[in-house]
């Protein structure tokens, strides 16, 4: 278990991990890692807030994106500040490459929360490689599925770094 940065001391902890600000809660009130609270997801994208700590982003933001999102240059996953991105890259089992597959059953979301539009396609699917895209800024856009997206379509990234390419794609060392 990685140490939780002091920066995240205000967040609840579950199973030794800091609970991201955008994490949805189930019908019983428990936090559901991997499920997004739709209202907070929208707030994070449109108001330029970090998805983990909930604070406003500064002059550096990082989009953690799946390989399938890179072609669109946008994602429903809100950006993160550098501290939270570094923590998430090692703490989140999916991003860190410790999970071979996505969850196979839908999360039991609480009242008023809806599943992600692409949830059914991901259920039980193999885990994808993850990438960190470092930016000065991103543009909030309306995505094709009705959810807001963080986009860098017309913005030159400062850096694009693979996080789990080797874990998900043996034999491939670069995208």
Summarize the structure.
The chain has 175 residues and is of the alpha+beta class. 18% of the residues lie in helices and 22% in strands.
Largest sheet: 3 strands, antiparallel
- Report the strand count: 10
Helix fraction? 10-25%
Strand arrangement in the largest pleated sheet: 5-7-10
Task: Write down the Rg.
Answer: 15 Å
Q: Which structural class best describes the helix and strand composition?
A: alpha+beta
Task: Give the helices and strands as they follow along the chain.
Answer: EEEEHEHEHHEEEEH
Task: Please state the average pLDDT score.
Answer: 86
Distance between the termini: 28 Å
Strand content: 15-25%
Number of helices: 5
> How many separate domains?
1
Could you give the topology of this structure?
Layout: E1 13-14, E2 17-18, E3 23-25, E4 31-36, H1 38-46, E5 61-66, H2 67-70, E6 74-75, H3 82-91, H4 119-122, E7 130-135, E8 139-142, E9 148-151, E10 159-162, H5 165-168
Antiparallel strand pairs: 1-2, 3-4, 5-7, 6-9, 7-10, 8-9
């Amino acid at each position: 278990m990685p140490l939780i940065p002091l920066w995240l001391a205000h967040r609840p902890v579950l199973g030794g991990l800091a609970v991201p600000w955008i994490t949805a809660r189930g019908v019983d009130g428990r936090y559901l890692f991997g499920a997004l609270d739709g209202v907070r997801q929208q707030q994070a994208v449109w108001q330029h807030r970090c998805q983990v700590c909930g604070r406003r982003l500064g002059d550096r933001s990082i989009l953690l994106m799946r390989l399938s999102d890179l072609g669109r240059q946008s994602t429903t996953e809100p950006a993160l500040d550098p501290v939270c991105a570094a923590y998430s890259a090692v703490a989140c089992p999916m991003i860190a490459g410790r999970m071979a597959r996505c969850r196979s059953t839908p999360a039991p979301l609480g009242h008023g929360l809806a599943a992600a539009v692409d949830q059914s396609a991901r259920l039980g699917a193999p885990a994808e490689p993850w990438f960190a895209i470092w930016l000065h800024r991103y543009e909030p856009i309306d995505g094709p599925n009705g959810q807001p997206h963080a986009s860098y379509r017309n913005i030159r990234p400062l850096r694009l770094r693979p996080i789990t390419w080797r874990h998900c794609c043996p034999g491939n060392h670069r995208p």
